[in-house]
Write a structure and sequence with these properties.
The structure is a single chain. The chain is an alpha/beta fold and 349 residues long. It has 2 domains: 19-36 and 260-344, Aspartate Aminotransferase, domain 1, CATH 3.90.1150; 38-255, Type I PLP-dependent aspartate aminotransferase-like (Major domain) (Aspartate Aminotransferase, domain 2, 3-Layer(aba) Sandwich). Helices cover 36% and strands 17% of the residues. The protein is built from 12 helices and 12 strands. Helix 4 (112-119) links the parallel strand 3 (102-107) and strand 4 (123-128). It starts with 24 loop residues before the first strand and ends in a 5-residue tail after the last helix.
Length: 349
Amino acid sequence: MIQDYFRKDLSDFESYNAGKIDYKVRLNANESFNNLGATTRKKLGRVIEDSIYNRYPDVESRNVCNLYAKYAKIENVNIMAGNGSDECIQIIAHTFLNNGDKVAMQSPDFSMYGLYTKVAGGIPIEFPLDEKLELDVEGFISMANKKEVKIVYLSNPNNPTGNIITRENIIKIIEGCKCIVVIDEAYFEFYGKTIVDKINTYDNLIVLRTCSKIGLAAIRLGFLITNKTLMEELKKVKPPYNVNSITQSIASVIFLEPELIHKNVEQILIERSYLWEKLSKIEGIKLYKSKSNFILVEVPNAKKTKERLIDQSINVRSFSTGKLENCLRITIGSREENNCLLKNITLDN
């Protein structure tokens, strides 16, 4: 049987299912509600038209890395581009993990940390957040060292809670954990604080960034930022030509005009405040404070609430088990989308 050639350790895996996308209101994927403006799209059209299609892309994505380094206030030797930050997570796993190595992460947190750990032959160790969905920092450090983990992954702000770990506590974790520490700053723009300035202070620190939350989800571009020693090791595993020429060209245009990003983020933050205020007035909803482009809410019956929203062609993120079983993660939408959600978010016990 052909199944005899399959990996036994992946027998219980399910393929990642992002779900269908043909909803009238899409508030489930933490995308930006703003598309690029007409003037910018025309610039991109000219760039795409002038692209060289018969040659491989720049293997190191040098231009876009240089521009992002300036945007992130780092040196260009400290940055690597990836096909989304997902690929950066995969590169980290395949660079450092041997079969049976342990990796620590919060629970809940971004699911791809555990998935890529397993695919690389590692063992994910989940550390549950407390009842307030906050991290016991000292307990986490103790667990990581006791279990002798090789990598720690922490999204900050956290996905899906929207909560943050303070800079002081991030530094405690970097200094206290005897392993590589990966801080995923996918939602940095909505929080405004970073640990990227410490990449050369700590030899065990890696920072991840993405363009997917700031209006460029379609081009699949992420960045890995770290010191020279770790970077040289990671480059051994990075696939050649991993970021295509069109993505590089589009991103280069955008990062030449970072004010486009700042304006987009500002509009999202305005809508986050609006949605928070309106949701807080609905009896029966518990809100968790968010420093991201989404809000996590707890409702009496999340399954029924989501079904009712789906019936109105509104999609939000739901969770089937654990602390978030009765929670919905609602991406910040446009004013029209947010009002549509508010009109239809009737609660059931």
